Amino acid sequence: MALAxxxxxxxxxxxYLVMLIGSFKRHSExxxxxxxxxxxxxxxxxxxxxxxxxxxxxxxNLVSTIVISxxxxxxxxxxxxxxxxxxAKHRFPGRLAFLLLVLVTQMLQPTVLAAGLFRQFLAIxxxxxxxxMILVNGAFNLSFAVWIMHSFFAGVPKEIDEAAMIDGASKLxxxxxxxxxxxxxxxxTAIIFTFVxxxxxxxxxxxxxxxxxxxxxxxxxxxxxxQYDSAWQYVFGVSIVGIVPxxxxxxxxxxxxxxxxxxxxxx
Amino acid sequence: MMTNKLMEVPxxxxxARRQARRDLVAALPWLxxxxxxxxxxxxxPAGYLVWTSTRDVSVVGVDRGPAGFDNYVxxxxxxxxxxxxxxxAIWVVGVVVVTLLVxxxxxxxxxxxxxxxxxxxxxxxxxxxxxxxxxxxxxxxGLDPYxxxxxxxxxxxGILDTGFGFTRQPVPAFLVAMGVAVFVSLPFTTYxxxxxxxxxxxxxxxxxxxxxxxxxxxxxxxxxxxxxxxIAVAVLINxxxxxxxxxxxxxxxxxxxxxxxxxxxxxxFKYIQQDRQVETASALSVVNFVIVLAVIGIYLRVVRPMRxx
Lengths: 267, 309
Fold this sequence. Notes:
The complex is a heterodimer of chains A (267) and B (309). Chain A is mostly helical. Chain A has helices at 2-22, 27-30, 46-49, 58-89, 95-107, 110-124, 130-154, 158-166, 171-199, 203-208, 217-220, 232-266. Chain A starts with a helix and ends with a helix. Chain B is mainly alpha-helical. The two termini of chain B are 49 Å apart. In chain B, strand 1 (55-57) and strand 2 form a beta hairpin. The longest helix of chain B is centred in the first third of the chain and has 43 residues, at 10-52. The chains are: A mainly alpha (267), B mainly alpha (309).
């Protein structure tokens, strides 16, 4: 069993090991025929020199990715949480219509709407800005966040709320002291999923962000791949920098991930 | 007396309607932020897209007036479209089915207790954490016929005599892209099914084996029915994601001339970025969305993922 586990793990890690090892090769070695499995000479300085290349202003790209992901996630949270809470806890006309509308946004992905979004942002003058990408990431990750948090809010028994009320707690106190701790795993799951989706977004950025300084890491790495010459060592160095934070994030919540998906996807 | 009765009857109806309106007004502040975002960033561009698809737009983006259905005619006259539609069908069905089958087996395995399981589960997450462009790029490099390290590995273990240009011809490149698409879809699907497995009652599984049911029989008659909603949702999300996937094909087959390895989604981006034809791209986007809706509609009718609710 453990051996089979190791094989499975190796299968999923193999491409990323190629990345990691490749990021330490010298440019001449990574293009050598035949290919070497382990660098004959380790070049950790790739991780320093990749920040100043003619291909792309990498420091700006990293900042872009961070700003767009952080603000996009925050936007999703601020917008999705009240909607998820209210639709789970109250019945009102149009509730189902609203939830269906949210579901439709899941089907309309940025790839389908790219041409329309591009024209719209051009018309109102915010094409090629972080703001445009924050709005896009916010809008297209909304549905998953609403659905996950909705099912967690719906899972809080009414009796607990009522008991807290009887004990003299105000509505806000009840929300903070009773409801929030119960739904916290759902909120964390929604945050992680949204953040990872924003962090790795590619299609909309490709069309909307045209200035090199504004582009995120996902678009930046494509600049290193040319028709005749490719700086693979930089492609992989940047990839490692982009992937490691997300893996750490996932590792922190791995146990919760299963629980979060049970409530969000299965319910 | 008569007048009194007449006046009494409609009163509850009015107050019910008033109550409904009051409920709606009370709900609005909670929903307004989400509604604003959906309307401005999803619905408006969707409408704008449909509008653009009926306009004559120049290569620099200037609207030169109405075009009727000319853009759709251009699109359907394109000799590449038939092949692209066929590719799209193969792409979606192939990737989703293979992903599901492998994920079912993988989830079953990861549900068992064995030393190091936590680490193996973490390893399975990695392709999900990594950006799809980055994953696709490392395959593109690794499969280079000359300096690619994966090609070298295939030669060294004796599968190939010499490096093969997987990403140089439309058909092999498309198949490699499908493989990569499965690879990056596995973590989410596996984890969703794994989450579903937590809800399978252990006693029932044990009872089934006591009754002499083999593992295959137990899986299909005891475990699978519990997993069904989880699988239905995972497949739905996979269909949407795989259909809309751009980076894998763009990275692995983008340098091949022509449209033999394109799906409708990658063709949209070729129209926008290479050919600067926003209006044809818009027409294709509209067609694309109609296809997604139709596929999802059929899927929901056949599978009924919310059947048990």
